[in-house]
Write a structure and sequence with these properties.
The chain is an alpha+beta fold. The chain has two domains: about 1-190, Ribosomal Protein S5, domain 2 (2-Layer Sandwich), CATH 3.30.230; about 195-315, GHMP kinase, C-terminal domain (Alpha-Beta Plaits, 2-Layer Sandwich). The protein is built from twelve helices and twelve strands. Strand 10 and strand 11 form a beta hairpin. It is globular. Residues about 1-25 have low confidence and may be disordered. The structure holds adenosine-5'-triphosphate. Adenosine-5'-triphosphate (ATP) binds next to helix 3 and helix 4.
Length: about 325
């Protein structure tokens, strides 16, 4: 099996004006097969409505309780069948790996090997979700790749099996396979579906800092956490379909680590609340902060206020 990767935009367009004798084998193949069978998948971002860490397990993972839901901020994946045993990844985003380190690549490799697929695939990632932001962009791309290739190659893999495959790629991947709203326990891979939160606006702001998930978990002393958010109370709020209760029950124990390391995340939370968001929380290990907003009339004020000092701000709806 050979794996090649390319950086840049859509190669079918990119090579259209190149004379035949100047095209390499892969480019010609892409052109020839570019119009063949194509599959599109949306890979939405997730937010954590609550995230609790119970303890560190003997296997080194943390036992967590998380309630997650999806927002309408999504990467778009285009997958085209290739006749040759090759996985090719491209993206317009210059800041993600396009080789074996890309989670979409890993997902494609896993499904190919496990189901003995001999044909190849070209995957173009149109990245919209900020990278390393606590929004599970890579995990969602991996999940979308599993869903898409299941269709493209007509493998008929049941969703439960796709989730099991996903858990080999990362703790958030099984949730991203199904989406919706769910309680995740274990290391994040044991899922129970929950009702979606009442529809609202979600304003997301990502400060220009890099947060390492491993470092945040590494610095967390689970036994010293004084205030644990409550999964059961958040679950009740969702079952009651109460927006106010959902806002009251937001909580993330990783904030205490990330906010200490990066005080700008705390400032962003304060600013969102001051500008009128109904509930505010950091997602995952950060650094993205999200605000839940019920009234549309407040959204532009919050968005514009944040844009004054933070470049990456998004106003989206929940994906319900
Ligand atoms: P999580 O919330 O699951 O911790 P995250 O939102 O913090 O994830 P990602 O955007 O998934 O982080 O990126 C984490 C790392 O994964 C980055 O360093 C990035 O280079 C790498 N990565 C691999 N594949 C992808 C992909 N398809 N999209 C984005 N990042 C990817």
């Amino acid at each position: 099996m050979s794996f090649v990767h390319r950086r840049g935009g859509n190669h079918f367009l990119q090579y259209r004006n190149v004379p035949d004798d100047r095209m390499d084998e892969d480019s010609t193949e892409l052109l020839r097969w570019g119009s063949a069978m194509k599959i599109y998948e949306k890979a939405p971002a997730k937010i954590n409505l609550m995230l609790d860490v119970l303890h560190k397990r003997p296997d080194g993972y943390h036992e967590v309780e998380m309630i997650m839901t999806m927002v309408d901020l999504a990467d778009r994946l285009e997958m085209s069948a290739l006749p040759r045993d090759t996985i090719i990844i491209s993206s317009q985003a210059g800041y993600i790996p396009l080789d074996e380190k890309n989670l979409a690549f890993q997902a494609a490799k896993l499904i190919k090997e496990r189901y003995n697929v001999r044909s190849g695939v070209y995957i173009h990632l149109d990245k919209k979700i900020p990278v390393a932001a606590g929004l599970a962009g890579g995990s969602s791309d991996a999940a979308a790749t599993l869903r898409g290739l299941n269709r493209l190659w007509e493998l008929g893999i049941p969703e439960e099996e796709l989730k099991e495959l996903g858990s080999e790629l990362g703790s958030d991947v099984p949730f991203c396979v199904t989406g919706g709203t769910a309680l995740a326990t274990g290391r994040g891979e044991v899922l129970s579906p929950l009702p979606n939160p009442p529809q609202c606006w979600v304003v997301l702001a990502k400060p220009p800092i890099n947060v390492s998930t491993a470092e945040v978990y590494g610095r967390l002393h689970a036994e010293q956490i004084a205030n644990h958010p409550s999964a059961s109370r958040m679950q009740e709020a969702l079952e009651n379909r109460s927006f106010n209760e959902v806002c009251q029950q937001l909580g993330n124990v990783l904030e205490q680590v990330t906010l200490t390391l990066h005080p700008e995340v705390a400032h962003l939370k304060e600013a969102m609340l001051r500008l009128g968001a109904d509930g505010v929380l950091m997602s995952g290990s950060g650094p993205t902060v999200f605000g839940l907003v019920s009234k549309e009339s407040k959204v532009s004020r919050i968005y514009n206020g944040l844009r004054g000092f933070c470049k990456e701000v998004y106003a989206v709806r929940l994906l319900t």
